[in-house]
Amino acid sequence: MKTSTYGDTSASRLAELKTCRTLPQFIALRARLIPEKIALRQFDRVANDWAQVSYAELYSRICAWRKALSALNLKRGARVAILLNNSVNAVLADQAVMANALIPVPLHAIDTAGSLSFIIGDSDAECLITNKYERWQSIAATGDVLPSLKTVVLTDEATPSNQSPLGPRVLGIDDWLALGNTVTDLPAGPEPEDLAAIVYTSGTTGKPKGVMLTHNNVVSNVLATLEHISPAPGPDYGFLSFLPLSHTFERTAGYYLPLGMGCTVTFTRSIMLLNEDLKLVRPDVLISVPRIYERIYARINDKLKKAPGYARWLFECCVNVGWRNFCRANRMPVPSSPFMWLDSVTGPILKKLVADKITRQFGGRLKVAIAGGAALNNRVARMFCGLGLAPIQGYGM
Fold this sequence. Notes:
- The chain is of the alpha/beta class and 397 residues long.
- The protein contains 14 helices and 14 strands.
- It has helices at 10-17, 24-33, 55-70, 88-99, 113-122, 133-140, 173-179, 215-227, 248-260, 274-281, 290-306, 309-329, 343-359, 378-386, and strands at 38-44, 49-54, 79-83, 103-106, 125-130, 151-154, 169-172, 195-200, 210-214, 238-241, 264-267, 285-288, 368-371, 391-393.
- β13 (368-371), α14 (378-386) and β14 (391-393) form a beta-alpha-beta unit.
- It starts with 9 loop residues before the first helix and ends with a strand.
């Protein structure tokens, strides 16, 4: 069992997490037990370097955001729409909203203005947290009536001077946080059966529909997932987050789960730089949709087509031996081969010659690969299993 520099184990972290009944308790727990551990990392384009936030700092900033939200006099259970890319601010918004017993409505960052406006109106959101005034203006330009929306908060900009007096009040981040300076008492947190989010569907069969998830729904899902991953993410594990936080899959497996276990989550610079970020961040856990695995599969096959015959032969042998070993380990029928009796000898050699070179594309430290959102193609799954990176496939409605 892996022991961290803090002297604890993944098993002890899981035992600690089981004491939590709501999602805001996850970070509060880690801020108390491992305050100096890095919780989040993201690329700072101004400094041209990676910025990081410890669990103690993250919790402190969440409390400041909670005070600013309290100053808006939102009633318990009020909806707050969040339109942000994967970032530290997205976590701050989500956590502060939940901790004040309000309900986050995560919005897809690349959705159309019309769809965003519909969701804000349908959910009766009273506050919208986004990064730029331009984003709010595009939503307002749809002309939809949003009677419940009273406040728009901009995380990356100052309060605009040219805002319309007819719409909701728009506040820049500094002015909004300053509202919380007079707040002394924070509201009571949520109960397990309170809503933790209203996550809207894509709307492929009509208008998007809001799925209501309680804290108990998500907490129990996190714990059940950890019980089925062996080994569970340990204290020194790192995650690379690139799937949208507006989707339940990433929220659960790539955000709540790692922060609950005291791991470090790094937000990718962009999906276009994902290959580079995998090598830079060197994650222990990769959470992805099948399209990413299929893209890597296609890239490997393209390279093999241009490679010498012996290289293609070695790759095929590596996958076949690895697949047979995977079948043995999982008590599945083992495909017959005249050379299968040599697998225990050739396996380690082929791993070093072939598999390790390919897995270095993922940073070289990958221990857990999770695929979800759709079914993973059998050929793709078989190749990754053969290379020693067996994807855990998740399914949920």
